[in-house]
Amino acid sequence: MPRPLANGFVTQRYNSAAIALHWVTAALIIANLLLGLTMVRLPISPQKLHWYLWHKSIGITIFALTSGRLAWRALRPHPAPVAMPTWQRQAAAVSHALLYVLLFATPISGWIYSSATGVQVVYLGTFPLPNLVPKDKALADTLRLVHIGLNSLLFTVICIHAAAALKHHFIDRDMVLARMLPFNRRRGATR
Amino acid sequence: MLIGMLRALMVALVFASGSAAAAGVVVGKSEIAFTMRQMGVNFDGRFKQWKADVVFQPDALDKSRAEVDVDLGSVDLASAETEAEAKGPLWFNTPKFPVAHFASASIRNLGGNRYEIAGKLSVKGITRDCVVPVTVKADAAGSRIAEGAFSLKRLDYRIGEGEWADTSVVDNDIRVHVKMVLAPPG
Lengths: 191, 186
What we know:
The complex is a heterodimer.
Chain A lengths: L1 E3 L5 E3 L3 H24 L6 H30 L10 H31 L5 E2 L3 E2 L8 H36 L19
Antiparallel strand pairs in A: 1-2, 3-4
Chain B lengths: L1 H13 L16 E8 L2 E7 L2 E6 L9 E7 L3 E2 L3 H8 L11 E13 L2 E10 L2 E13 L5 E10 L19 E10 L4
Antiparallel strand pairs in B: 1-2, 1-10, 2-5, 3-4, 4-6, 6-7, 7-8, 8-9, 9-10
């Protein structure tokens, strides 16, 4: 639904499902980064095993949510970009594409890594997922580095993504961030 | 401490020759392995060092016997970290209890190629009755291959104490697989 802005321009918010998927995914990614960094430092214990289970389950959830997001995006296209310099729009397109790629690649790398270490992923401790590769120590060592690398890249792109959103909100004072917020308080764009 | 070191030394001496001391058992082709289930996932492990004294005479089962000593410190698991944990005080506690011992008391013919070996298994200072069903086959070279599996309730032997006693994390049932290749007599 187009919403008139104070300056008379009309813009559109993201639809509610897209907004929900965005923020749920964001929360899960932050939680899983912290969980992942913490759990690997724990001495082996039932708690550590539970944290691994949760880390893997959250990762698989992110993968599933991202699939859902892309499908939803195909059905309900995003609103047109907010007016901004071409290079910024291109940079945004590249970083968004990279985020989508990483939201698939990072969980998948973890899944393959787990398979290579010989530990089958059991989603939520209930649903066993197929092993993607047979147990292979050398491959597991490589995939560990790949998983860490993809997470580092994901974290970096998220920081750029968030910094850009904040810059648009507080410096450019445009609708880039507001149209993705669950509760839009911006004048002229309230319900 | 000293006793622990002496025990460790004894184990080292006993197993020093690998498992070559195994009478009549072709160690290289034999195996003592197990499968444990941890939060819905199966993990396979095995023991690299053990010795077995097996006498098998199908027509004289009363003269047949099987005795196995397993060096628990030789446990082979997914990673060095889990192996260290398995040898630790909550699991095998190998400094204090380095060896698991099985001794048969009777062997019964179940018909066909199937036999039942009843005996005592001692782990961690706890001895309990243990029954191992095996199937015996002959290979082309005349060796007999005895293969069997049994479920061991790990909590019966206090394997995995304290926080690890929770069977929702590690199942109580540990499936133990034994394969002994017996050299042809003479």
